[in-house]
Design goal:
- The structure is a homodimer.
- Helices cover about 25% and strands about 30% of the residues of chain A.
- The first copy, chain A, is an alpha+beta fold and about 280 residues long.
- The N and C termini of chain A lie far apart (about 40 Å).
- The mean pLDDT of chain A is about 95.
- The interface between A and B is large, with 57 and 57 residues.
């Protein structure tokens, strides 16, 4: 029996993409990365909500969510633990920035093996570094998981020490925004805080889940506040809740807020055991 | 006899692209749009220079320029007036922002019919509008013609009046930077001025040609200076030198600097006759 195809382009197995697709030409589109554990994606409704809202902001037609659900299930079929990436672009277009009058979006659904995160990482946390790159401020694109990700590529290229898991990103004014691949939360003075993302950054689906189940203060967060945090952790749709063990010179120990959210993620079905 | 292929992917005629290409996933790459008149691209060396410098800034291997020249000539073969788009991406990669240790860049070379610009436009100029979108400031990407062009897509979608040819873009501080598809020059107090592009904007190849043949002051340019300009014109590798006839409420008449540069472009072989 043939293995199931792990890649669908507009529903066709292992199809290729037109080199004239606007997703390539201009990064004109967006994506979702969705963890599937034993065929189930606990945060699927939140992914679809962000996709709908982001499509509206980019003037893209809303995709057929039932179709996406069938295709995501098909590419992840038989995988114990998968990450499904859904990419929606504005489709093939003529040369030039003007949006086609009747866009025919391209839909790519692909499954990858979920990255392995060591139990020790969930238990003790990961090491963060501060990136030199400062995120540019573009309110019209802030929050959207769009295809213009050169800043993340350049930021991730700043280090190659494998013991450093991620890099902290600030905006031009020195405010904490997120990491290259996750959102950041801090417990400061007993309150759970996460940066507002009105000017830059990606508004993650895991972040939305935390906001839904905990009281969180969404506000500007200065880098100088982090050494005073009692807890520091990352949220990611792929990895769930991961404590930060150290950021620059400051060492953190996972506390009760981090542990409670990790428990919530386990209840959602994510394998984030930490011992 | 078969028509020549107008599209090459890594040298293969009419080939498709992997949906896992980082050019699509992250906009991880760059491009050049090069005017070919009767098979000749007068600004080819400047395009190659920008491509080399941009590849270095994005940590991409430098492409084989002789190969690009052969492929560009092949796709434009038999076309009286073409625009050749060369796209270089970081190639196929695993999921994740980290650059592959040994990237295999993807090379796409495609020919399109050159857009028709009316003789009246070269003679009298075009209408500009002011875009509401403000360009984000990212010095690490400024000047590069990279594949992250959602800002230009959104800016171009601000109007659909076909009598308006282009939109002026400011940065967050209100400084004039460029238009959605060209660089801008102004004659102010007798001096030729163009905005500095240290924080955002694309450093066009036609702009580089103007800088090479005229004395130009490259400096910050405030929007409030434009109504006092004696001449205003755009430079573009595709369209050459095009006067601005009106920007918002201000009307301009093409002057001697604009005409001299149009003459220079005609000497380079561009069909920019204005009568």
């Amino acid at each position: 029996m043939a293995a199931p195809s792990r890649l669908l382009v507009d529903g066709a197995a292992d199809a290729a993409l037109s080199p004239l697709d606007r997703g390539l030409a201009y990064g004109d589109g967006l994506f979702e990365t969705i963890r599937f554990v034993a065929g189930r994606a606990a945060l699927w409704p939140r992914h679809m909500q962000r996709l709908r809202e982001s499509c509206a902001r980019l003037c893209l037609p809303a995709p057929d969510e039932a179709l996406l659900a069938r295709e995501a299930a098909a590419v992840a079929d038989g995988m114990a633990d998968a990450v499904v990436r859904i990419t929606i672009t504005r489709g093939v277009g003529e040369r030039g920035y003007a949006m086609p009058a009747s866009p025919q979006p391209t839909r790519i659904v692909a499954a990858f093996a979920a990255p392995v995160t060591a139990p020790e990482t969930y238990r003790d946390g990961l090491r963060l570094r501060l990136c030199q790159l400062r995120l540019a401020e573009q309110p019209l694109l802030a929050g959207i998981k769009h295809l213009n990700r050169l800043e993340q590529v350049l930021a991730r290229a700043e280090w190659d020490d494998p013991s450093i898991a991620d890099g902290l990103l600030l905006d031009g004014a020195g405010r904490v925004i997120c990491t290259t691949m996750a959102n950041l939360f801090a417990v400061i003075g007993g309150a759970l805080v996460t940066p507002s993302l009105e000017r830059c950054g990606v508004a993650g689906v895991a972040r939305a889940e935390v906001l839904a189940v905990r009281e969180v203060r969404v506000r500007e967060l200065a880098l100088g506040e982090l050494p005073h945090a009692q807890e520091l952790f990352l949220s990611s749709s792929v990895r769930g809740i991961v404590p930060v063990r150290s950021m620059a010179e400051t060492v953190y120990v996972p506390g009760p807020v981090t542990r409670a959210l990790q428990s919530h993620w386990r209840e959602l079905g994510f394998p984030t055991e930490h011992s």
